[in-house]
Amino acid sequence: MSDYRLNTALKTATLLILSFFLIGTIYSQEKNLDLAKKLVLVSEHESPVIEPDHRDVLGTNNQTGFETGQVVKIDDTYHMFVNEMFFRSHRDLRISYWTSSDAVNWKRQSTVVESIPGRSPFNPRSEVWVTGVEFNTKENAWNIFYVAYRGGDKSKRELPGSDYQGRIWRAKSVFQGVEGIAGPYADMGIVLQPDENSQEWEGQQAVATFNPYKVGENWYAFYDGHNYIPKGPWPVGLAKAPSLEGPWERLPEGVNPLPIAKEFIENPQVTELKDGGYLAVFDSLGDQEIAYSTSEDGVKWTPEQRVKIQSKGKMWGAKGDHAMRTPLCAIEEDNGTFTVIYTSMMNLKGSKFYAIGKCSLAWK
After folding, report:
1. pTM flag (> 0.85)
2. Higher-confidence residue: 250 or 35?
3. What is the chain's alpha carbon radius of gyration, rounded to the nearest angstrom?
């Protein structure tokens, strides 16, 4: 073969290879674009669904509102387990249970767990925060997971007003079956706490929040940590267990902490999507915004994206980081939207009240 024919053949082969490569790249990009969906606000309740003048708020002397918890839907009823900050915000708490048929009109049903009054380094239940609600098929009973803290010890150069050494308690519904969700609940023991397996990133507050979800035959749970001195970010890690009741073990460092948010992430609530994969919504930063992350396998999560959940002219929540607080769920409805119940701070004549809001999100 002459040099000319050889060069021509080589050029032709090269062009064919490049064409296949470019076609493959474009096809791959198109597939990726199809997967690059974002959550957007599609509807919102233009005022809080539980405000300071709600009859059950007034009837229980809830002075500063709500923070953190989880909402689950059974048939046509929404069930909300939420922390009531009945006196000082983020200090005096109890875990309560509410129900609604439309996620707008709520009725308080009961108090589930009380904190022990008197915040001190020697009171390990100075605060109680419910963060996870799951049905345990193995026990045929509902499980709630809540964190209990002690106060800081000034003699040890800790911050007296901060939360230390969180311990995650598991409580089980006394009555079996799905209908037992109303409780009462009995403590079953601590499933995760500071110990020899604690990781450096967890800091002095951990273990903070605990939100289990199922992947295949195993259970995973997001858990938080934070260091007060020196002050650090608020990262999250994952723990894993063969069953909901445990035993729970942290995933190794290198996997933990997860690279979802650079500065702040709290109380991720996970939804297993009907079309496959997982969605987590959580407390982040930004005015009238929450954040979310997605995962194909429930272990590797995408960097956070934020979505504004109160629109112009309907922004009843206060502005500023940590004013828009915590999403309690992202319930995938039959029409493809996600019902989000959340807490948000309101400024009321110089005082603060953390109210409950509602909106709907959808993929775009």
Report:
1. yes
2. 250
3. 24
